[in-house]
Write a structure and sequence with these properties.
heterodimer, A: alpha/beta, D-Maltodextrin-Binding Protein, domain 2, 2 domains, 11 strands, about 35% helix, B: mainly alpha, MetI-like fold
């Protein structure tokens, strides 16, 4: 069972079809906000793979002792975009415009918990606002939190007076919205998706195999087609993060149920 | 109690009260229609009215979201004005009302079906019009059952989450009900706050049910 962030849903399902043809194994999915997934992974031994939309929730799972050692890596990165309906009247040319443009609500995934919302908040907190505080303080009263990033997208699709902040990949998945502004990599927070095999799940070996597949070139092509950047999204010489060739070294089915 | 909790509590009570009030009259009339009359399409109507009970609340929320979108069948472009239900507390009322309607209708219908039609027929022979019979004879007999229907509707509205959060969002102080506040706190890993909100929700539920059952017990016993 693959626990995957809601924002990778379309891409991973497409990649999944390839994997199924190759291996004959049909991955099953649990999609939600990564925060929710992390708590579920820690609470019950149902997951074999965890794909988190940020490193933080993966840290939680790793610190909880639920990751198979050496299987964690940074799989993908993403960008934030400011969106509105295609017929929306508002224009946003940069972060500062969010404080001045007369939109009704700024729709984001819950900025206290869901990665997409946390990233959006971090971005706005890093920009100076008009009143001396941060931009976040200036827009906070207009923020409408949703359950996850796809719910924010669905909300923005309903009304041209709404503006949302979602991932570039979410915006690409909908023909009802337009991108008003793409947050440059240098300006926004680093958005990294971490993947890892979970220990003690129903089928650890299949989980490990799927993680390897996700790190391979075929899955990479699918992810790129959906607007993701494969890897860390930086020109780091060492490729960044745990490029450990996952080889089943620490895989012991016996540690099933070993976690609290 | 902090501001956010207090806001959520106030909003929950307000939304549930208004939703119950909105649903009660049409729900009662529809229930009476279904209990007393045979007409073409009755089965379809009855099924439609029950659907929100079996549909996932998030599906109901999504349906409402699409219906009420600017270019949806009940949107600004079609109606010529804005119902202003997306991301507003009125939206929470609509979402909970839709979810509460089946319980109100079903409970009221069973109540009406339990009333002997001959009592109504007798009143009619006294020369009263059907509407007068409904008010003079049927309603007093159905009083307790209708109260139960209202209570069920109210409690459903208090606890509703999926449809509300999908249509009205989760804006603290504006559209965040107890149910969505609990979810938000738990989502953010603030277990203490979630637990506290849970206790508040339990207290609200307990008081609402206990008080209404006392009320129903007392008022039901006296007249006759």
């Amino acid at each position: 069972m693959v626990f995957a962030a809601a924002s990778v849903r379309d891409a991973i399902q497409e990649a999944s079809a390839l994997y199924e043809r190759q291996s004959g194994v049909t991955p099953r999915y649990n999609f939600a906000g990564s925060n929710e997934l992390a708590r579920q992974v820690l609470a019950a031994p149902k997951a074999d793979v965890f794909l988190s939309a940020n490193e933080k929730w993966m840290d939680e799972v790793e610190n909880g002792g639920r990751l198979s050692p050496g299987t964690r890596s940074t799989l993908l990165s993403n960008r934030l975009v400011v969106i509105a309906r295609t017929d929306g009247p508002h224009r946003v040319g940069g972060a500062d415009d969010l404080a001045t443009v007369a939109y009704r609500h700024l729709v984001l995934a819950n900025p206290d918990a869901v990665p997409a919302g946390i990233y959006a908040r971090e971005w706005l907190q890093s920009r100076p606002g008009p009143g001396g505080g941060t931009l976040w303080e200036a827009v906070k009263s207009k923020v409408a939190p949703t359950l996850d990033v796809r719910a924010a997208l669905a909300m923005v699709e309903t009304d041209p007076e709404l503006i949302g902040i979602v991932y570039r990949t979410d915006a690409a998945s909908s023909d009802r919205v337009q991108v008003l502004y793409e947050v440059p990599a240098a300006e926004g927070p680093q958005i990294r998706y971490a993947v890892g095999a979970v220990a003690g799940g129903p089928d650890p070996a299949a989980g490990l195999g799927f993680v390897e597949f996700l790190e391979g070139p075929e899955a990479a092509a699918v992810f790129e087609r959906h607007g993701f950047v494969v890897g860390t999204g930086e020109e780091a010489p060492d490729g960044g993060g745990g490029e450990t060739p996952a080889g089943g070294d620490t895989e012991t089915p016996a540690d099933a149920g070993g976690a609290p | 109690m902090d501001e956010v909790t207090l806001d959520a509590l106030r909003l929950t009570v307000r939304v549930a009260t208004v939703a119950t009030a909105v649903v009660l009259v049409p729900g009662t009339l529809l229930a009476y229609l279904l209990a007393r009359f045979e007409f073409r399409g009755k089965g379809v109507l009855s099924t439609l009215l029950t659907l929100p009970l079996v549909l996932p609340p998030t599906a109901v929320g999504f349906l409402l979201l699409r219906l009420l979108a600017v270019d949806g069948p009940l949107g600004r472009r079609v109606l010529g004005f804005d119902l202003d239900l997306i991301l507003t507390w009125k939206g929470a009322v609509v979402a909970t009302a839709v979810m509460a309607l089946p319980l109100v209708v079903r409970t009221a219908r069973v109540t009406f079906e339990g009333i002997d039609p001959r009592l109504e027929a007798m009143d009619r022979t006294l020369g009263h019009r059907p509407a007068a019979v409904f008010v003079r004879t049927t309603l007093p007999l159905a009083y307790r059952g209708l109260l139960a229907a209202a209570i069920l509707g109210f409690t459903r509205a208090v606890g509703e989450f999926g449809a509300t959060v999908t249509l009205a969002g989760n804006i603290p102080g504006r559209t965040q009900t107890l149910a969505s506040a609990i979810f938000a706190a738990q989502q953010a890993g603030q277990d203490d706050e979630a637990m506290f909100l849970l206790v508040v929700a339990l207290a609200v539920g307990f008081v609402a049910i206990y008080a209404s059952e006392r009320l129903a017990g007392r008022t039901g016993a006296a007249p006759r």
